[in-house]
Amino acid sequence: MNPVEDHLDFGLQIVFIGFNPSLRSGEVGHHYANPRNNFWRILYRSQLTTRLYDASEDGELLKLGYGFTNIVARPTRGAEDITREEYSQGRELLRAKLMKYRPQIACFVGKGVYTEFSRRTKAYWGFQEGLEPVVDGVREFVAPSSSGLVRMPMDEIIGIYRRLSEAARSDLE
């Protein structure tokens, strides 16, 4: 199965970073394509987007200043199928992407994505205040996973993403 193409460019406000694509995303070639994944609903309900987008429109979000990538490119059934070697390689590739494109904010979709990338043992919801970013000049935001398996109440998840939305709007002012 092919990796899902990154949507990256210079001048992006936010790059959303996941563990890796789901099998469904690998089949259709779009980020967050599993119908049980709440990513697109979360973006809309947190006011990061003004309408509900479909996974097939992921490339359109570049126009909004949002990009997409993953720490590991290989689609799997779950993050538990990712090998240590893939994480090691993925960390270096992700660091290089962030250094090249320099988005304002790197939004890690899940604490585990952030801890794998940063090699830190703890992460907090929201901006990682008081910590040196892995890539100088790129603010790090940790948001809950959008997987349908997450047990956190949806309103709480949306509230965390709304903080990202508010920060993004204030950055534009």
UniProtKB/TrEMBL annotation:
Question: Which segments of the protein form a coiled coil according to its record?
Answer: none
EC numbers: 3.2.2.-
Q: Which CDD domains match?
A: UDG-F2_TDG_MUG
Keyword DNA repair in the entry? The reply is yes
* Keywords on record: DNA damage, DNA repair, Glycosidase, Hydrolase
Pfam families to which the protein is assigned, alphabetical? UDG
Show the GO MF annotations: hydrolase activity, acting on glycosyl bonds
InterPro entries according to UniProt: MUG/TDG (IPR015637), Uracil-DNA_glycosylase-like (IPR005122), Uracil-DNA_glycosylase-like_sf (IPR036895)
Per the database record, which ranges form the Uracil-DNA glycosylase-like domain? 9-153
Has keyword DNA repair? yes
Q: What class of enzyme is it?
A: hydrolase
The molecule here is called TDG/mug DNA glycosylase family protein
